[in-house]
Amino acid sequence: MTSMAHDPSLEKGSKKRVRKLVQRLIEGASRPGPGPAGEPETAEPSPLSPEPAVEAEKIPSHSPEPAVETAEIPSHSPEPAVEAEETSPRDVEPTGEPEEERESLPSDSEEPITPPEHTDDGGETWSMLSEAEAQELRDKPLGEILLQISALEQGQLEEALSVQEERGGNLGEIVVKLGYARESQVLYALSLQLGIPFLQDVPVEEVDPELCSSLPIHFAKKHGILPIRRDGNAVLVATSNPLDIYPLDDVRILLNQDVKPVVMPTRAIIDSINQVYDRDSNTAQQIIEDFDEDSLDLITSALEEPTDLLDASDEAPVIRLVNSILFQAVKQRASDVHIEPFERDLVVRYRVDGILYNVLTPPKRIQPSITSRVKIMAGLNIAEKRLPQDGRIRVTIAGKDIDIRVSVIPIAHGERIVMRLLDKTSVLLKLEDIGFSPDKLKTFNRLIHRPHGIILLTGPTGSGKTTTLYAALTRINSPDKNIITVEDPIEYQIKGIGQIQVNPKINLTFANGLRSILRQDPDVIMIGEVRDLETAEIAIQASLTGHLVFSTLHTNDSAGAITRLIDMGIEPFLASSSLIGIMAQRLVRIICPDCRQKYVPSEEELREIGIDTEMANTKSLYRAIGCGNCLGTGYRGRTGIFELLAFDDDIRTLILKNYDASTIKKMATDKGMFSLRQDGATKVLKGVTTIEEVLRVTQEDVVSQ
Ligand SMILES: [Zn+2]
Hints:
Layout: H1 8-26, H2 40-43, H3 52-55, H4 65-71, H5 80-86, H6 98-104, H7 131-137, H8 142-149, H9 154-167, H10 171-177, H11 183-194, H12 209-213, H13 217-223, E1 225-231, E2 234-239, H14 245-255, E3 258-263, H15 266-280, H16 284-290, H17 293-304, H18 306-312, H19 317-331, E4 334-341, E5 346-352, E6 355-360, H20 367-377, E7 389-397, E8 400-411, E9 414-423, H21 438-448, E10 453-458, H22 465-476, E11 483-487, E12 498-501, H23 510-518, E13 524-527, H24 533-544, E14 548-553, H25 558-568, H26 572-578, E15 579-591, E16 597-599, H27 603-609, H28 613-618, E17 621-623, E18 635-646, H29 649-656, H30 661-670, H31 676-685, H32 691-697
Parallel strand pairs: 2-3, 10-14, 10-15, 11-12, 11-13, 13-14
Antiparallel strand pairs: 1-2, 4-5, 4-9, 5-6, 7-8, 8-9, 15-18, 16-17
Bound molecules: zinc ion.
């Protein structure tokens, strides 16, 4: 225990001071300082400020920043309009999503905090102590307490102490960083030391909403503080940083009541804050209801003078409303937000998993405010109401970097806005994760490792082609390959790949970009889309001169792409010698596992999708119902279905002889190719999706069964 002698007296003394201060706080005394308080301790200059000894014990993860940063939703970086909002983050925060917060918390809090889940570091030792045992540990050095209550071993403690000696910092932080104890354990130890009660978490329904409403959410998050309930004459307040009593003191002033601190882990507090504030208000609907005529007039007049708006924007309900619309969109995984004016009302719709839903019907009278607000955010001209405009908004919503492409077009009843949300932080999918069956994955993988040739992906917009392309490029990406793309837009940036953004304004088209790429000595080329003969010709040229080329075409099925190229003006022999594979794809929604219902489909349904009755009888088939976990849609997330046409000599011969698409497709299916619908049927049989869903996305897929 010699190493524990690391300035123990100072440590202990400071701790005592802290406890005393906490005690004073509870008793309603005000901040220490040059005030009337006669106790010698408080007469000392700022005993709690970053004095080394106290600092040494501050728990790391409580530095409030992480939680706060992610909580700042409306940081639309470059535009000034945005800055105006940053000053008022709480406007949107209340809808904070717990998951997002978690991601952004310090690493230690990524682990579950509740004791039963602590298996890797000796969770058993973590159980709470009895009153008597707790009493024993009071005022003991933190390290000593941790030795008793956690799996921390003497050697580890000594290591932590020597790290502390070497680099400074807090013992608790170091122990957590070294992985010897968890934040929650360190906090528990601290609570024992200070004699403050400790709580793992608090059920959201036990939190008094009235108390929370008197505390701004950004304050709560910044300091990791949550008022829980009244307890006698005081208010029980959870804190994840019991050593920092100033925020507690502020709570006392804000609530005008004494506070009784309880220690609670950071993540539990942030989760509770999100849930409580989310529960209580600030849905878009709520904001609309809060609109009153006066504030509306104010906003409308302010909007006529953009500069005024920027100055006075902080609390404007329209800003909160638009922020809330965007926030909810991200929360519900929407890919697009539509704001559509009709004669009598305004409709806000989200596209989630490819399907549009009405989410909100704000009153018509606030339409101009909403439109102007979005246009300002997107850097558009708010005075121009007769011409279409395009712009961009960059926002951070709950830690996600979202790039929003905004399109505004004038229609009969005002300006129609569509915002496409691109989550820059979303993870690129691997080929294994996009829905391939094992044999299809094998075939596709073989194709993308060929040295040259063209691989085309086909399907309408929103069929997941880009995701597949990125997955393919990521798979073959390696330092010995030069991969260059021309895209519109670049949806994800992939390390090690040169990506060019098409820009028609400066005549950087797919064709021009492609031509330039070829002078950059590429091995693999990806062209976002083949739209015209020129691009198609260069792509073919590139593949014939030894490059692997990926691109997309807007055709329904795989064989249709061949005829499409020939219709564009490509010679059949060029198509047959350059193409190596064509894959049609669609996205089907994945049935919600929480509410799906087993059922027996009708003969007709089975016939339509091509599943025979006997087969259906041996499997469990489901239909979508809808529950709280899937927003009542019955589905959650999407996966791909594929029709992969890998070229062989027979297919090439048919193309050379200029056979039509259906003959080519017939030959391919005879050789074992699954059509989109057939591939969908296999997913129905696996319980991944529904018959209805597969039929919906394969309406135009005409297969001779
Ligand atoms: Zn559900």
